[in-house]
Amino acid sequence: MPNQAYLGLVKHKGEYHEGRFEPILSATLFEAVQEILRRKAKPRKSKQRHDFPFTGLMTCGECGSAITAQFSRGKCGGIYRYYRCTKKKGVCSQKYIQEKDLAAQIKARLQSVALCDEWTDKMLKQVDEWEKEQNHSSQKFVQNLKNKISETQEKLDKLVSAYIDGDIPKENYLPKKEELLKQKVSLANDLEDFGQTGKNWLQPLRAWILDTKKAKNLASSENYGEMKRFVQKVGTNPKFLDKSISISFCPPWDFMALRLAQSPNAERRSREAILSQNGESCDWWTYGGSNPDPGHAMAV
């Protein structure tokens, strides 16, 4: 917004008024200058950013430097993206890896903590049943607390009435009132705390099961950005060494990967994690026999 003071105008509370001083410029000259400034004003060219979805995910396993990315054009005009060590911490012998090969390795790691739909559907169904039981039990518990609070309030009301009527001396009234008030406050706190924590164990369990479904879906997707975010969520300290990425999983994902690796079909699963995109193996479902106990399955 051009400064209108050049024209002798003063702005006060959002409204312009004539000033008590002579204008610096005439209105004609002022508008001519503004027109020249508008013609010369050009939007800044934004720097073109290249899409390198896996940058910031891992560090070099040899020297500890960050991993950077670059692209090159093939003989047929195609664009290829590569990742390599920045070598900012000194001499490093690590070579580059093409993005599609890096993505294939990440998919294999995601597949190592993925469960098939049959398993996750059964687990989610069990969580729904537990939630119904929890709701029924919670309602009874909450109602019991409310009844105790009402009973305590009735005792307080009777105590105050008896004191006012002169049936109870002050030295007996005061300690009894204090006892009942403490009891009422404690019950109210229990009710509030239960409302905040009553279902906390079910919510993270359901979220974890849904994440195992997400791992399966990502293992067959081309959404590299979402793959990176998921690895950062469930993994820790990804390293790039000898053209391979290594990922340590956080609990309970580390247990999941170990259990699936120990299943009878682990060798087949490992091969399919790299070569297949369907991800339909159900190793946990077959673990320990062809007719597993669902209760035991949820506990492992």
What does this structure look like?
The protein has 300 residues and is α+β, with helices and mostly antiparallel strands. The chain folds into four domains: 4-40, no CATH class; 59-107, no CATH class; 118-202; 207-299, no CATH class. It contains ten helices and eight strands. It has helices spanning 27-40, 99-111, 117-164, 170-197, 202-218, 224-234, 253-261, 266-275, 283-286, 294-299; strands at 9-12, 15-18, 59-60, 67-73, 79-85, 97-98, 235-241, 244-249. The longest helix is centred in the middle third of the chain and has 48 residues, at 117-164. Mean pLDDT is 78; it is low at 267-300.
Terminal residue distance:
67 Å
Which word captures the global form? Answer: flat
Helix and strand sequence: EEHEEEEHHHHHEEHHHH
Let me know the number of strands.
Answer: 8
Number of helices: 10
Work out the radius of gyration.
35 Å
Biggest beta sheet summary? 3 strands, mixed
State which percent range the strand residues make up.
Answer: 5-15%
> What strand line-up does the widest sheet have?
3-7-8
Q: What is the typical, i.e. mean, pLDDT?
A: 78
Overall number of structural domains:
4
Q: What would you call the structural class?
A: alpha+beta
Structural descriptors:
300 residues, alpha+beta, three-stranded mixed beta sheet, three-stranded antiparallel beta sheet, 13% strand
Secondary-structure map:
Layout: E1 9-12, E2 15-18, H1 27-40, E3 59-60, E4 67-73, E5 79-85, E6 97-98, H2 99-111, H3 117-164, H4 170-197, H5 202-218, H6 224-234, E7 235-241, E8 244-249, H7 253-261, H8 266-275, H9 283-286, H10 294-299
Parallel strand pairs: 3-7
Antiparallel strand pairs: 1-2, 4-5, 5-6, 7-8
